[in-house]
Amino acid sequence: MSIPFLDxxxxxxxxxxxxxxxxxxxxxxxxxxxxxxxxxxxxxxxRPLWFDSNPAEIKDxxxxxxxxxxxxxxxxxxxxxxxxxxxxxxxxxxxxLKEPHRFQALVLIEPVLFPFNFMLKWNMVRAxxxxxxxxxxxxxxxxxxxxxxxxxxxxxxxxxxxxFRYMSDEYLRIFIQGMTQPKNLTDPVAPSQRGFVLxxxxxxxxxxxxxxxxxxxxxxxxxxxxxxxxxILRGSETDTFWESTARSVGKxxxxxxxxxLDKSTHLLPLEKPQEIFNITQSFLEDVLQ
Length: 289
Description:
The chain is built from 13 helices and ten strands. By secondary structure, the protein is of the alpha/beta class. It is globular and about 50 Å long. The model has no long low-confidence stretch (mean pLDDT 95).
């Protein structure tokens, strides 16, 4: 089976965008529209969005990077700009470390990368069989509501959540539409099938949380030899790519450019798409001349 993907249009240099865990590509509509104004923008889908995929097959995130390299082969894409958010950034980074000649540049938005001591603690938690119980996001993912009667009600509820504090009403509505789909696309008037369903499987979301982080030693060891022009974008109030992590990355590879955006979180590309585009465009114009 060929790896499924979406083409967002545009002309110019090829730019591959890889979405985050729990966030289908449609959630990034405003950013993707900006990117496609300057680049041929496209992106494969992570396995949770493949038909009949099995979360139990994933033990760490390495297969996702292999998927990306396979996708580039299948589509005969030569040296794209690799851009990703969260796991999408981490997957892109690992693929570039494995086969650096395949990419022009990296734009990593809030990559999932934690310090050695935190990784050790997480491995101990897993070793004692407590990973699913103690990971702060796994239980939340599994308890996530899957069915919705009305997206306006979803918006009203989400609007009050602190996690979305920096997302405009417009972008929040786009996010909600992107994470859901009609329950019955073929017969939308069937009484038992009205409403919307979560597009991204909570079981897959939880499995990605559980299998991440523990085996990321290769990312830290590979950082010093990462010679591709690389930009990392982080939110000033992130809970993922910490300031201490940014300092450690800078020490291991001073050539990597790291930019922190004020009043932003891990949801940076959904909060500030125009700023993300402007910084990315300026960076790429400088390094790809």
